[in-house]
Design a protein that fits this description.
The protein is mostly helical. Helix content is about 80%, strand content about 0%. The protein has two domains: about 55 residues, Arc Repressor Mutant, subunit A (Orthogonal Bundle); about 140 residues, Tetracycline Repressor, domain 2 (Orthogonal Bundle). It is built from nine helices and no strands.
């Protein structure tokens, strides 16, 4: 790669990174509908033209923000799971970390509230699948395959658990006692997961 091309690539990376970071801050604070493109460009220190050049529209920029938030949550979940030695502990730790990550107001607003509304349910689900849902399917498939979880179809089970955790995260977003309710939710999730064990 030539020096000029490398310089252009680095400039593009800096510009798009600044736009996504600035937009993430504003979308988290005021929601998608409450943010204008001019203030995003100002927050990022770039022109409005640069924003259109790289993302095409406000929705295009928001999609990149949602993707980043989903990736961050997925990395938190994976890091928590990887600390555990056995597959069952990895599942429970990952699910618990998802609830903890999703209780962050920024994650709730961008990923769970505005994400499906702005992008549409089908696109939001596709992105969620790419970011984290497949990991849940893989973890459950390993547990069913090893006999830890009672034999059953994995795909519907993964969707049921994912839906339950997303719904719990939305409920936590409206909580007046978020720390206590998060602890209660993690405990309830642990009991729910325990019921899946073979012979439970």
């Amino acid at each position: 790669m030539s020096t000029e091309r490398r310089s252009n690539t680095e400039r593009t990376r800096r510009t798009t990174g600044a736009l996504v970071s600035g937009a993430r801050l504003l979308f988290a604070r005021r929601g998608y509908a409450g943010v204008g493109l001019a203030e995003v460009a100002e927050e990022a220190g770039v022109t409005k033209g640069a924003l259109y050049h790289h993302f095409g529209s406000k929705a295009g920029l928001f999609r990149a923000v949602v993707e980043q938030v989903q990736q961050d949550v997925g990395e938190r979940v994976a890091a928590a799971a990887e600390k555990e030695a056995d597959p069952w502990s990895r599942l429970t730790a990952g699910c618990g970390e998802f609830l903890a990550a999703a209780s962050d107001p920024e994650v709730q607003r961008i990923m769970l509230v505005d994400g499906p509304a702005v992008l549409g349910w089908a696109e939001w689900r596709r992105m969620d699948e790419a970011a984290s849902a497949r990991h849940l399917v893989e973890a459950l498939a390993d547990l069913v395959g090893s006999g830890v979880v009672a034999p059953q179809p994995v795909e519907p089970l993964a969707r049921l658990l994912s839906g339950a955790m997303n719904e719990a995260a939305l409920w936590l977003a409206r909580s007046e006692s978020p720390e206590a309710d998060l602890a209660d939710t993690v405990e309830a999730l642990s009991r729910l997961l325990e019921s899946l064990r073979a012979g439970a």
